[in-house]
Amino acid sequence: MADAVVIGSGPNGLVAANVLASAGWDVLVLEAAATPGGAVASDRGVHPDYVSDLCSSFYPLAVASPAMRALELEKHGLEWRHARAVMAHPLADGRCAVLEHDPERTAAGLERFGAGDGDSWMRLYGLWSDLGDDVMKALATPFPPVRAGLGMARRLRAAGGLRAARFLTLPVRRVGEEDFTGPGGPMLLAGTALHADLAPEAAGSGAFGWVMAMLGQRYGWPAPLGGAGALTDALVRRFTAQGGTLRCGTAATRIVIREGRAVGVLTSDGDAVRAARAVLADVSAPALYNGLVGWEHLSAGLRDDLRRFQWDYATFKVDWALSGPVPWAAPETARAGTVHLGDDMADLTRFAAQLATGHVPDNPFTLVGQMTTTDPSRSPAGTESLWAYTHVPRYVVGDAGPAGITGAWDERDDLAMAARLEERIERYAPGFRSRVVARRILSPRALERHDANLSQGALNGGTAALHQQLVFRPTPGLGRPETPIASLYLASASAHPGGGVHGACGANAARAALRASHPVLRHVLPRLSRMLTPSRPPRAPVPPAPSREARERSHAAL
């Protein structure tokens, strides 16, 4: 028996486990995979001399997040490394916009793209200086973010009131049109917005690009020394040093519910683990509801809402071991840890439109990570450990390119899409292919096999579009980690504030569990949650509930 069982050892699960262990709880983490970390992992699977990050690599949200910073992981062996420049976006005409560590240097570079663009960038940075801390606190706080919200409201008024609020709703294309005369600034923001599944014309995409770019100005986009797995290692070391227990290779198969309360977990090896106080699930919302939790435990309204849950786009990634640095045509590109490849704003819009219509993009917007440039320990001197990824539709209708990619993601599809990414890089770095020593292809299927939370490689735990953010995440409600089942908390990126390695989803769930352990709140909160859960009738037949005998067997196990 444990005070709390945490299902999943991704960054959110490990942050939740650390918060509870710090409060003196006995915590058990169950991880289905053989190793912890989920999407925060690294290996030498491409080449024995090269460290490659399997999924995520750069962590501006981790260094900025109050949840992560409170854990002081640097005391547990974590070290950060930075490239000389944060991000670069080379353009088709040979110029290159660069996000420098110093905002004034960024502004000076953008001034070369258009008169007054440097001043425009500094105005955006000034707005971040006014609002940034409150924005981060509000994003990391369950709804309603009362304290952070009041502080942000005061600062918004001082920063221009409704004009500043309007800016936060703008599509990134419109931000570029209103604030810049040249393409440099708009492309820095738009490429960053496309880290999520937000088209340049999507409401709020300007704010997303602005937040991520400004985090780069203040904190950089750092990578852990030695590989992404070093961040997971630090989280695990901190957790186990406090007496926590991590069991890998043990999948949770069912959350046992008795009288409306989560009381434990059944595992793939036949164990029944009692949870005296709470169960926290670092799994996707679809995996939790009608997966770990039986459909029969959910209200008709929640079942109907879950049928509307929208994933973000699938992801296709390639890792390379290179014999030398990428031979970029624009020399400034070589200084950056992250590189965005998109010819211009129209090119990004076309890419987004192809995704929206179910077509594999023919000229995909590509994110590139130069890991040895960022952290020289990743590969031998004079070489480069490189990755690139792009988004593809979850359900492929057709291929906008000539290769006839079907979305089966078999060997033929994988090779054709990898060639398409290499062609994209080759156009900006002639001779790139001649430096490839080895490569690994990670299709949407391969990414999901590595981490079940990455459904077809969906990186954000569900769309980042406004209709499934804030109080609408993962379904319309309070934007909180509590579920309709007492003592059960959603601790994954499917919960507010969503994707990114910031740990806020896990920390919010852990704090909710701690609050609910108060004798009075333990009875009040579940009733309040049930009262606020919609009760619309389902649109489709509901699967039958397990038999009474099956329920009794599950309960008897605990």
Q: Largest beta sheet, briefly?
A: 7 strands, mixed
Classify the helix fraction into a percent range. Answer: 25-40%
Give me the number of helical elements.
Answer: 20
CATH fold node name of the largest domain: FAD/NAD(P)-binding domain
Query: Helices and strands: which structural class?
Result: alpha/beta
Task: Describe it.
This protein is an alpha/beta fold and 558 residues long. It has 3 domains: 2-32 and 249-309 and 459-556, FAD/NAD(P)-binding domain (3-Layer(bba) Sandwich), CATH 3.50.50.60; 103-219, no CATH class; 311-452, Polyamine Oxidase, Chain A, domain 2 (Alpha-Beta Complex), CATH 3.90.660. Helix content is 37%, strand content 19%. It is built from 20 helices and 20 strands. Strands 1, 2, 9, 10, 11, 12 and 20 form a 7-stranded mixed β-sheet that branches. A 7-stranded mixed β-sheet has the order 7-6-14-16-17-13-19, sandwiched between helices. It has a two-stranded antiparallel sheet with strand order 3-4. Helix 5 runs antiparallel to helix 6 (146-158). The radius of gyration is 23 Å and the shape is globular.
